[in-house]
Every structure is written in structure tokens, then in C-alpha cells.
Amino acid sequence: MKTESVGNVTGPAAVQPKNKQETAIKQSETEKARRPEAAKSETETSKQKFNVSILQASMDVSISAGNNSMGLLFKSAIEHINQALAPELGDNAIQNAASSGMDFSPQATADRIVSASTAFFGQYVQNHPEKDQQTALNDFIKLIGGGVDKGFADARQVLDGLKVLQGDIASNIDKTYELIQSGFKSFVDNYPGTDKANAVPAKSAD
Fold this sequence. Notes:
The structure is a single chain. The protein is mainly α. Helices cover 72% and strands 2% of the residues. It has a domain at 65-198. It has a two-stranded antiparallel ribbon. Helix 1 packs antiparallel against helix 4.
């Protein structure tokens, strides 16, 4: 026999709504607990897609890297020379944009890097009146030479990662480096009033 009251249910039948409410609460809590895992899964999926896009981009670059390696080398060298000169002459002392129609042979690339960087020697001297000319020349060449070294190292790393640092590309990079060092030495040797005996010697490619 069931016991009922007006507007309310008493006895065993009254337990059911409570059980349903508890079940709903548990389900809600379970869903909340799953949300971080779902968000984490979505994040991992996004990372995987991003990594795939990077790999695809690298493959696309590798196809044309052989033709653009000297352009990459020039850009990398100029950017690092800019960084080396920044404390002395401010940001972007050298314009680092290169048009696609430029001659990127080793000699042309070396000539541009040498002329673009050594053009700032006069300003460097003005910033260091305490240095005699020979000291200023040597210190300046060491400064921009460090930028060249970092630029070439970065370019080699990129090209090596793309599996194209070999054959003519590798030899052209080495040749360009040698030509730059010769250009720096010539700049120092031919600068008026230079003491050649105390000039900074040119480096050799690794």
C-alpha cells in the first residue's frame, strides 16, 4: 500500500528524483574531469598539425634552396653584421633587403658584404676618438668580422638542415668567406696611414 500526500510523494517513490539528481551531478563532474584531457588532446593535435606544416614548409624551401643559398648567405651575414654594429651605430645600420635580381656569385656577394660593412668605419671612428687609427681599424674589422662569422654559421646550419650544403653550394660559401676576408684585409691595407705590420690578418674558411 502506497502512502501519498497532497502535492508531494512520500515513501519509496520519493527516492527516485534524488537518485536521478545525484546521477546527473556525477555525470556533470565526470564531464568536467574529462575536459582538461580533451583540451590537452586538442592541443596535442594542433601541435602535430603545426609540426607537419613546418616539415612541409621545409620541404618546399629545400626544393629551391640550391638556387637561393647565396641569397640566404648574404642576408644572414648582413643581419649579423647589423647586430654587431647596433651598439655602435644603432639598429639596421646596413640595409639587409636584397632584390631577387641581384648577382649572388661568390665575388659579387663578398663585394657587397665588404662594401656595405666597411662603409661605416668613419662613423665608428667618430664614436671612438680615444683610439688611434690602427687600433680603430683592427677593432672595427674584428667587430664586423664577428658578424660575418655568425652569419655564415647560421646560413650553413640552415642549408645543412635542408641537406643541400654540398657540392657547388658548399664550395661557393667557402669561396665567398675567403673573398670577404681578403676584402677586409685589402680595406685595412689600403686605408690611408695604415700600419700593415700590425693589421688584423685575414681568416681562413673552416
